[in-house]
């Protein structure tokens, strides 16, 4: 089956259908990001209504992260093997049903289960959606423009989730769960009409079942261990054994991938410095931002006594700046290249985090809070789209889902790891019943950690600046056997398409 959208768009003028396709994919990514942040403000109301303990309550957040971060590698490869359109639409339908379930249940375990299912479905929609974009829009200015809009929707969803949850929770926490359902359903209906059909993606000689099992298990166990470590203790036998088991599973995964004829991840991708910098940059970028948001939310509500809505509105300038810049980042990348844009964003991010260290028990909105939010918003607008462009440029179409899943895994794992580390630093000193100033002082080491993580992201980016005369995109090299196998697969795919 063919479609006008099968051939990557290479012109500056987009058709209404092309815009429609992009908007459907943006809606799904917006929902994925929205769901990560929107539930946070509603947690106290959920605890009161369902009678949940603090340990059970954290799993409403962690359950989503576990499903999302643990299954992204499998989701990315499934998009390549089973068909991007098919995987995206099925997962979007599951997301809508799980959202409906989450808003109707009266049981803590069922709510946690619905959150896990939503995370699982997002693990398939995110890499499938990104790979649809990278195979629909030709590499270069056109794709950069599409990716800047797409990733800006993700950043906007994450920022606006706080604002929406502050508004909706005043009516009922259930609305924070139900809101994504109709949006997902509308996106699904339009997606059935607009998302292009394509020739069935090659199975690359079969499915890497052992790789899928060990890779997924290692990611699930890693995220679970990091989420539980602050409560269980970083040096407890349980945590250390979990990390040891994760290392064993990852080792087994690497061995399987090296020997597999159809690997879940082609390890040759990781020989690219550009790919490594993109994934490590994604870990530090999202990890520092999630940790910062967590700390600032506590500061606003616990120390300043702000309401959920006031807290949400304080984050609004950052989200608004990201939304307004959606069409501006692509041209910047075209002119300066991703390393320079990413480095600039990390510089702004570090400055913003350091500036926030000046906060006191008296709100300093005009001199500290607002400038920090604007700096963080500008950083998010620059870094997130550029990381996606850098990770997907120069990659064959049949591996776009794989690299998309790898990048999104880096984002989620980075968020889980650095949030857990920051939480452990903040809670290292017992401040229960302590004076407000002492509580604020306990926050500062966590803010320092956040700034250090962002600075590490800047250092990771700097080696990419040396290739001053290099092309903006870098083709991920394949070894001779991989190249030969790829050529054989492509020939087989062309033959199969001809028979169809």
UniProtKB/TrEMBL annotation:
Superkingdom field: Bacteria
Domain Major facilitator superfamily (MFS) profile: 21-469
Topological category with respect to the lipid bilayer: Multi-pass membrane protein
Positions of region (Disordered): 479-500
Biased segments, Low complexity type: 482-500
Main location, first listed in the record: membrane
SUPFAM superfamilies on file: MFS general substrate transporter
One Pfam family named in its UniProt record: MFS_1
Keyword vocabulary terms for this entry: Antibiotic resistance, Cell membrane, Membrane, Transmembrane, Transmembrane helix, Transport
UniProt subcellular location: Cell membrane
CDD domains tied to this protein: MFS_MMR_MDR_like (cd17321)
Protein name: MFS transporter
Organism (species): Streptomyces monticola
